[in-house]
Amino acid sequence: MTPRFATDVITFYHPRFWSLDSAEAVRDWALAHPERFWERIMGTLVESGVTGVELTFAPADIASVLRAFGSASGFRRELAARGLSLVSAFIAGADAPDWRQGENLPAIVADAERRAAFLAEAGAGLLVAGLPMRTTFGTRPAFFVDAAYMTRMADIAHAVGEAVSRYGVKLAFHTESNSTLWYERDIDLFMALTDPQYVWLCPDSCHIALGGGDPVAVARRHAQRIALAHWKDAVGPIDVHLTVDETVFARQQPYMTELGTGVVDWPGWSEAMSRTPGAHTVLIELDEAPDPVAALRAGTAVARASLGAVRDPADARGRPERPAAV
């Protein structure tokens, strides 16, 4: 099976791509010109050969789509006319009710249902979320990611997962650096506490590696629950305790790199992905590429090469091969 290649719209957020001088200028221009903003993104996707897209926070969020096309179905038609499709939408923490506040559950569920209704109408079936961020190491009182905390997160995930399932949408969790779903242990604990019928996983190869984990080992352990994965490379583990505030995402950037130039074992990752329910989509994640076409073509070339080395998925699961005729 040949997978479709996709990318997160963050790929198109670099100011140089828009001939602008700052991220704020890009957001302002996109808000003022939503149709032109999306025309350029879709045209660039076509040029790159990537056919799927994941929505995220502004400027290329659900609200932006509705300003440009009027409806989710209108967006779906515009994508389809270019041979493109929507894969998923990512819930950024700053754009949604805070999961750390227990009284927010009704608002959390309502927000997820709104997004799921949009996704269903737009032809996509995945809502990607993350768990709240950790606090800066050494902060007092200390915040512990323990069994009690993860049980609360699992309870919320169950409520959200059940709610969006009514729209035919799966809820998958992303393994964000410096979040409470970062280390291998975090992932294993959360997966153990959640129902596999309602809660799925979206592992990010880069972020797992940044936490000192083994992305391939994680993918193999949780293969049956991976609905989507973010394919991204890392230069190595983060070797310092970063300050966890609004600057943390920018501070992570120096540890990220283009596919094939870091520490991720792409043949191993590709083999593990071939066993998953999400094997039909390869989402290349590139944060703010100045030249998205070149970056996406380079990334898909690495992914294609590693996928080409993978045996047929049936054989990879250990099914005996038919003996040659004699």
List the helices and strands and how they pair.
Blueprint: E1 4-8, H1 23-32, H2 34-48, E2 52-55, H3 62-69, H4 72-81, E3 85-90, H5 105-122, E4 126-129, H6 147-165, E5 170-174, H7 184-193, E6 200-202, H8 205-210, H9 215-221, E7 230-231, E8 233-234, H10 248-252, E9 256-257, H11 266-273, E10 281-284, H12 292-308, H13 313-316
Parallel strand pairs: 1-2, 1-10, 2-3, 3-4, 4-5, 5-6, 7-10
Antiparallel strand pairs: 8-9
Share of residues in helices: 40-55%
Poorly predicted parts? 312-326
Rg, Å, rounded: 19 Å
- Number of helices in the DSSP assignment: 13
Alpha-beta content class = alpha/beta
| Percent range for β-strand residues | 5-15%
N-to-C CA distance: 29 Å
Number of strands: 10
Q: Largest beta sheet, briefly? A: 8 strands, parallel
- Order of strands in the sheet with most strands: 6-5-4-3-2-1-10-7
- SSE ordering: EHHEHHEHEHEHEHHEEHEHEHH
Average of the residue pLDDT scores: 93
Shape: globular
